[in-house]
Hints:
Blueprint: H1 2-11, H2 13-30, H3 51-62, E1 71-78, H4 87-101, E2 109-113, H5 122-125, E3 132-139, H6 144-158, E4 165-170, H7 171-206, H8 213-236, H9 242-272, H10 277-304, H11 312-343, H12 360-371, H13 373-392, E5 396-397, H14 400-403, H15 409-420, H16 423-426, E6 429-434, H17 440-452, E7 457-461, H18 475-483, E8 486-487, E9 492-499, H19 506-521, E10 525-529, H20 531-565, H21 569-597, E11 602-603, H22 606-636, H23 640-665, H24 673-705, H25 725-728
Helix pairs in contact: 1-10, 1-11, 2-8, 2-11, 7-9, 7-15, 7-23, 8-9, 8-11, 9-10, 9-11, 9-23, 10-11, 10-20, 10-22, 12-23, 12-24, 13-21, 13-24, 19-20, 20-21, 20-22, 21-22, 21-24, 22-23, 22-24, 23-24
Amino acid sequence: xxxxxxxxxxxxxxxxxxxxxxxxxxxxxxxxxxxxxxxxxxxxxxxxxxxxxxxxxxxxxxxxxxxxxxxxxxxxxxxxxxxxxxxxxxxxxxxxxxxxxxxxxxxxxxxxxxxxxxxxxxxxxxxxxxxxxxxxxxxxxxxxxxxxxxxxxxxxxxxxxxxxxxxxxxxxxxxxxxxxxxxxxxxxxxxxxxxxxxxxxxxxxxxxxxxxxxxxxxxxxxxxxxxxxxxxxxxxxxxxxxxxxxxxxxxxxxxxxxxxxxxxxxxxxxxxxxxxxxxxxxxxxxxxxxxxxxxxxxxxxxxxxxxxxxxxxxxxxxxxxxxxxxxxxxxxxxxxxxxxxxxxxxxxxxxxxxxxxxxxxxxxxxxxxxxxxxxxxxxxxxxxxxxxxxxxxxxxxxxxxxxxxxxxxxxxxxxxxxxxxxxxxxxxxxxxxxxxxxxxxxxxxxxxxxxxxxxxxxxxxxxxxxxxxxxxxxxxxxxxxxxxxxxxxxxxxxxxxxxxxxxxxxxxxxxxxxxxxxxxxxxxxxxxxxxxxxxxxxxxxxxxxxxxxxxxxxxxxxxxxxxxxxxxxxxxxxxxxxxxxxxxxxxxxxxxxxxxxxxxxxxxxxxxxxxxxxxxxxxxxxxxxxxxxxxxxxxxxxxxxxxxxxxxxxxxxxxxxxxxxxxxxxxxxxxxxxxxxxxxxxxxxxxxxxxxxxxxxxxxxxxxxxxxxxxxxxxxxxxxxxxxxxxxxxxxxxxxxxxxx
Length: 741
């Protein structure tokens, strides 16, 4: 098959080049902008049967007048020795509140709570020290652009604030809007840094201004096409996160450049042997095509394993990245050979095609490893084990605020409110209970008391205490406010539950779990919704998703390795080294995060993505190495064949690893902490794979197990005299897995 692809790529060079360019232009012109159809709202990535989504539906059905699709909290902070109750400050707060409640405000506002509009509720909306007040703006839309219309309009109104007031737009809507903006700006910076890094690395590898342009052009064309395909899917069927957009960039420029690198390296070797460019192109695709296709296959298997996750962040990111890898592979197998055939020897200008120098370092390393396998294994394991243990003890954070820079407006507003009123007041939980029988008022009062006693609950607002405990109201006001918490037609009661802790904290999530238990135990039907309820669901689903994905990824890759190597033993210890590399990287990332970002907690999705990326991308190098090792052991036996394989592939694996590490490292240029952590982690993990695991540990294991490495398939020895000029090359070019060239 790959011989045929090579011939087609050679024969139809210009049509292929023009075809790929035209498709990229058409897709870019016709597809929607990917950033416009992505979402970073955590609730969109929960399954339909998640308790927080069910809870929201129950609340909205039974209390449609109080239904909200998220809220903006406008925070007013008094300065210059004033208070928010001073005449000037109160007048401005009242002016903004009146505008928000008027017909002049954006139509997407459902309700407004303000100390000036609702003086009876002022005690809950103004801090005890009278330094801070808040206005809660409930929205009736989940559309990002419509939410931004409201945020922008509020921002315009706040520009007229007196010098004695600092103002902030915060709350869940403002937080996720700024999160989305930071994702977009991070994507732009990552693209720029990625392109610069790829060019610099390729210039260092080839010392030619022409060679880097080939992978850069091929991958960019592939990226534009994949980006358009994903955008169409996001518009029609899938909810794609902004995080997936960022990951698509680094995966395609990392893996895609590697595929081009292997093709270019082999083409250079063929040209150095005196072949004409057309024949060199055909030989290159024939000899390298199977290997890079197998490599891409393992990556796709790893990514597609994520589709079985319950959380949408994972089950939509998996197919997104798989699409990118497949398009990169197709472009690599067709467009890269077409460009090489057109350029010929000029692809390496001003140099001439030559055999790559394997380097003295790889020679010495491979000799030492082959001669002392057990000592090498013990040394590496002893060095990596402490960090691996430290990594396994890491804790994750679900705090969206920690992902954003501290000088972000919504974060600053949140901190001000946290210091003066309490973070739980900004994003209370909403509980619902439908009672089977009995007096609705009495049942509500009894359940309010039980909810108030739950550890982590500050207080509860309900029909029995509309403004919280200890607030005395006139009977008519009590009845009017209380009616908003009861639905006599369905025998349902609504509860606003204010937590003591920050809504994204572990303590808040633990409290939410207990609240759900109390609601369930004291009603016929119950529900709980709000930001804390959402992340509590995420925490619950994450544990199951991690277990399932780890099993699927490791199982799938084990089967692929077993088929390719015709062995059970080698895949077993290769999986073991993958896990050692992953946990060690986790430990290093935890330590670095504490030093660089001031917290050893990793964003909740970082370890999950780390595992998939390090396994799927890192196993590539095992495939390259052991495919070549099988050839060399067939010719020279073990350990001499192992020594030859490390020496032959060391340079190219190092180059490929540096490229992938560089592209992921570019993510650190962004402003989202989780993306910076994943960028750092995958970069470090790939470098560990490149310089330690694939170059030292895996060869040492192969040398230690000797012929058992290939059990039960075994390897039939051939005489060295039977080797051809092709097999004598000391090159890092990709081997054909499963057999000799």
